[in-house]
Amino acid sequence: MIVACIPAYNVEKTISRVVIQAQKNVDGVIVCDDGSEDMTGEIAQRLGAIVLRHDRNMGYGSALRTLFRRSRLLNADVMVTLDADGQHDARIIPDLIKPIIQGEADITIGSRFLENSSAVPAYRKFGIHMITRFQEISSKNGITDSQSGFRAYSKKALSLLEPTECGMGASAELMMKAHQNLLTIKEVPITIKHDVENPSTLNPIYHGMDVIASIIKHYSIRHSLLFYGVPGLFLMLIGIGFGFWAWDIFSQTKQLVTNLTLISIGSLILGLLMFMTAILLFTLGSIVRESH
Known about the structure:
- The chain is of the alpha/beta class.
- The chain folds into 2 domains: 2-222, Spore Coat Polysaccharide Biosynthesis Protein SpsA, Chain A; 224-291.
- It is built from 10 helices and 7 strands.
- The chain has a 7-stranded mixed beta sheet, sandwiched between helices.
- The longest helix has 34 residues, at 258-291.
- It is elongated and about 85 Å long.
């Protein structure tokens, strides 16, 4: 069973076309109406889609989480996600899911940068490339378009993944979790429409900061000893160094150098806090991993 999952918010002008095109290429369509104030949900339901409603707008990640859970409940073999504003061409779905059907991948991503990347506005291309390179530090999966919402997930991927982020950081979170679970990711070239009416895009600065914050959060938790422990030890060494320097001056002049002393104490306290944070996160992470 192949299902198309569509996060939707105030897209009554485009949702009908997206649902109808998707229905031609999948066995069922699920729409998460994320607190829309227009007729988005009603239109999708009239067209035969399963509509899941949020009482208020909770964000892209929350909508994805709802769609992941319903897809698992339906025992879907493949789950395809696409945007509700018409930018993604549902006719490409057979090409997108082909590597999963053939057992070549657990996740496929429709990449805007494998072919015809010139169609992407320069400012968006720059931002996406920057976020993708930043994400490579944590996931190392070699993908070219980490922010593409046009994706497909196998049953195995569905059983292992679920976003916890509420906002746009969910896309990056899923890629990091895919890397942690050793899932195979393959990209498929796509083109998208940028001239659609009312495209569902956030402020690019807010979008970028949301994604980067999500990457940092998950990386810091997963690699707590490296992220917090190493800087903590470094700060403690700085504190000890400044402490010896202040003590040396005091032993010779009997005068306490306030600046050196404050730097020493501050560095030692901050370093100790970071090191303790690293130990606690590492311990909690180990307990969680063992419980699974």
